Amino acid sequence: MITRIGLVAAALAVLFVCSRLRAEVEPSKLGLGAPFAPGKIMNGITRHRLLHFTFDDGPDAKTTPLMLDALDQVGVRATFFFSASRFADKSARNAHARELALLVQRRGHSIGSHSVDHKRMRTMTSAQLRDQLDRNDRLFTEIFGQRTFLFRPPWGSHSPELDAMLAERKNTVVLWNIGSADWTIFDADELESTFEKALPYLERTKSWGGGIVLMHDTHPWTVQAFPRIVAALRAKNCALLATDQELYDIADDLALWDPALAPATLEAELRRRQGALREATKLRCAKN
Ligand SMILES: [Zn+2]
Questions:
Q1: Ligand 1 center to residue 218 CA distance, Å?
Q2: pLDDT tens digits for 26-38?
C-alpha cells in the first residue's frame, strides 16, 4: 500500500513567490477568459485541507459525459485539461469531441490545455514546442472562440524553454501535488480507499492538508470512484467538525491557488469559506 500511496504523493517541487497583490479572490471560471497569473507555475501544495479536482486527457465519448453526471451528482466543479488532438480535424468522431468539450464548459467547469499530441515536451526542440503551442491556440480558438490560459504539460514534463514560451503567451502552468494513481489502479474500490489513505499520509509526512488532485475523465473506474471519494470526504467532515478540526473544502476553481494572491488575502478567504462550510456541515451531519 505504501508504494501506491507513494505514487499518490508524487510531488512536483516548484517554488513560487507570491508577489502581486490582488484585492480579492475572483470567483471566475479560469482557463478561458482573462490570463491568470501569466508565466506562473502552480504546484498545488497547501497546508490547508483545500482540494480542487482536475481531469486530464479527455474529452472521451464514453466516459466524459458520465464524469459530468458524477460531478453534478455531488455538486463539484472541476478543471478539465483537454488534449487538443482529440478534436484536431473535422471528422465526425472529432466533431463529437468538440461538442463534448463545449458541453464540459456549459456544465460550469474550467477548461485548460493538455497540449495537442500528449508528448513529453521537455525533450522537444524550440520549433516543435512553438508548433505545439501554435496549433494548441488555434484549435482551442476554433472550438471555444478564444484561447485557454491554463496549460498542463503531459506528465508534468516541462522545461525552462517551454515555461518561457508559455509565459510569453500569458499562460499559467498548472501541475498537481496529489496524483490519484488512476493510471495504475484500475478498480474503483481500490482507488477510493487509496485516496482516503493518501490525504492523512500526505498531511503526516509532508504537512500538505490538500492540493490540486490529478485524475482522468477517460477511465471508467475513476468515474465510478469519484462520487464515492467526495461522499467519503463529506462524511469525514462530520467527524472533523465534532473534534473542531479544519474541514475538507472542495473549491470550484483554481483561484485560491493563484500564485499572485497575497497570503493574507488567501487566509482571510479560506477562513470565510471554512465558516460557511462549518455551518452547512453542521446542518447536513445533524440530518444523517
Ligand atoms: Zn495526460
A1: 10
A2: 333 445 666 788 8
Q: Which of 16, 34, 13 is nearest to 110 (CA)?
A: 34
Distance (angstroms) between ligand 1 centre and the Cα of 48 equals 26
Q: Is 240 helix (H, G, I), strand (E, B) or coil?
A: helix
The CATH number, out of the four listed (3.40.1010.10, 3.90.870.40, 3.20.20.370, 3.40.50.460), of the domain defined by the range 49-287: 3.20.20.370
Segment 235-273, tens digit of pLDDT:
999 999 999 999 999 999 898 998 888 899 999 999 999
Bond prior to 65 in cis (omega within 30° of 0): no
pLDDT tens sequence across 41-93: 999 999 999 999 999 999 999 999 999 999 999 999 999 999 999 888 777 77
- Note the pTM of the prediction, 2 decimals: 0.89
Q: What protein residues have CB closer than 5 angstroms to ion ligand 1?
A: 56-57, 154
Distance CA 148, CA 80 (A): 11
**Ligand 1 centroid – CA 114 distance (Å):** 7
- The closest of 177, 210, 214, 194 to 4, measured between CA atoms, is 194
CA of 58 to the centre of ligand 1 (A): 9
Nearest Cα to Cα of residue 142 among 92, 96, 84? 84
Ligand 1 centroid vs 255 CA: distance in angstroms?
Answer: 22
What is the mean pLDDT of the segment spanning 147-161?
A: 94
Residue with cell 475572483: 26
Question: Residue 17: its pLDDT value, please?
Answer: 24
